[in-house]
Amino acid sequence: TQGQVITCKAAVAYEPNKPLVIEDVQVAPPQAGEVRIKILFTALCHTDAYTWSGKDPEGLFPCILGHEAAGIVESVGEGVTEVQPGDHVIPCYQAECRECKFCKSGKTNLCGKVRTATGAGVMMNDRQSRFSVNGKPIYHFMGTSTFSQYTVVHDVSVAKIDPQAPLDKVCLLGCGVPTGLGAVWNTAKVEPGSTVAIFGLGTVGLAVAEGAKSAGASRIIGVDIDSKKYDIAKNFGVTEFVNPKDHDKPIQQVLVDLTDGGVDYSFECIGNVSVMRAALECCHKGWGTSVIIGVAASGQEISTRPFQLVTGRVWKGTAFGGFKSRSQVPWLVDKYMKKEIKIDEYITHNLTLGDINKAFDLMHEGSCLRCVLKL
Ligand code: NAD
Ligand code: AHE
Ligand code: ZN
């Protein structure tokens, strides 16, 4: 297949919110600096549903969504040295080129090398897509497009992992789990004995709980409007649960009263701008830090009284938990292999690519954390 167009199955999003269509898609060979990957397993993340909804300013249609996956390198383009056919890999929507201003700064995990292309749904080389259906181009998504049996990505967006690792599990290390763990370890840097509040107990929020527990937090307060989440959340380290619907007071006041003035760290894992405000305002005066993880729709804006910041609260955000993707995803895989981090516990459903619309329906049910699709 090397150097040839591959025809395979992929789920194409033709229009916002219209069911995805399983199509025979043509996948062009990788050009210089590109890698073609046979995707074996992909999970769905809330961000896929967000872009599909039409509320993502970078959302382009038709496209192939998906960004939490694992597979095997099928072929590589000219000049690709770090991976070869047969390598087991995780595609990384946050690239790491190790050469750009961002990568060299030592201050961020964001990479500037291919970001303009991935945001425009094309490859860097020629600003074209490698996907087509009957000659019509289909846009890439987040530089990964994993809802396809084969995808083409930039070489700076590929993490080579332990070939012994089960791909049907470690696919989750492409997004949700690292995001939550890293928000705690890299972005907030939670210290032992801290009090933590987590808004939204989906996969990302539960991974925050897992990270906070491992960082030695003494109180981990889960906040969710779905009370069924508490039983699940206990297994990930949540020690107390608050349902905003059980209270008349604003949720930030409930938390301030519960914690003698506020929490040391809070995390917003929903994508709701009024919850982001509550998450900041439940932080302790003088030092409380709030981390935004949730992705909010185009046009949404955050607000608070500047006095909240003047009096020492800190507002931060995180992408992929601050992890340097190519360097640290293999390390996270090794931690999973050593049983130092959970993955299996986040997988509540397993389906096939043909069931992808059902998998999106499941996302809106409280019982579903991650659904893994076999391609
Ligand atoms: P999810 O839908 O599985 O979880 C969201 C949870 O929030 C659910 O349990 C829901 O019941 C709860 N919730 C909804 N409204 C609420 C409210 N008003 N108050 C309290 N709880 C509420 O989603 P997920 O896959 O865990 O992702 C969470 C968010 O993180 C999404 O916005 C996603 O796009 C974003 N995300 C960001 C990054 C990043 O790098 N920054 C990475 C992954 C995901
Ligand atoms: N196009 C979206 C951006 C959404 C967003 O912030 N994405 C996160 C990852 S979410 C993964 O589930 C991210 O990494 N952002 C940094 C980046 O470089 O995109 C919008 O709303 O504009
Ligand atoms: Zn995601």
TrEMBL record:
PANTHER family given in the database record: ALCOHOL DEHYDROGENASE, ALCOHOL DEHYDROGENASE CLASS-3
Positions in coiled-coil regions: none
Span of domain Alcohol dehydrogenase-like N-terminal: 32-161
Compartment(s): Cytoplasm
Gene3D superfamilies: Medium-chain alcohol dehydrogenases, catalytic domain, NAD(P)-binding Rossmann-like Domain
Keyword annotations: Cytoplasm, Metal-binding, NAD, Oxidoreductase, Zinc
Subunit structure: Homodimer.
Reaction catalysis annotation: a primary alcohol + NAD(+) = an aldehyde + NADH + H(+); a secondary alcohol + NAD(+) = a ketone + NADH + H(+); S-(hydroxymethyl)glutathione + NAD(+) = S-formylglutathione + NADH + H(+); S-(hydroxymethyl)glutathione + NADP(+) = S-formylglutathione + NADPH + H(+)
Lineage: Eukaryota, Viridiplantae, Streptophyta, Embryophyta, Tracheophyta
Native source organism of the sequence: Hibiscus sabdariffa (roselle)
The protein's name: S-(hydroxymethyl)glutathione dehydrogenase
Cofactor(s) of this protein: Zn(2+)
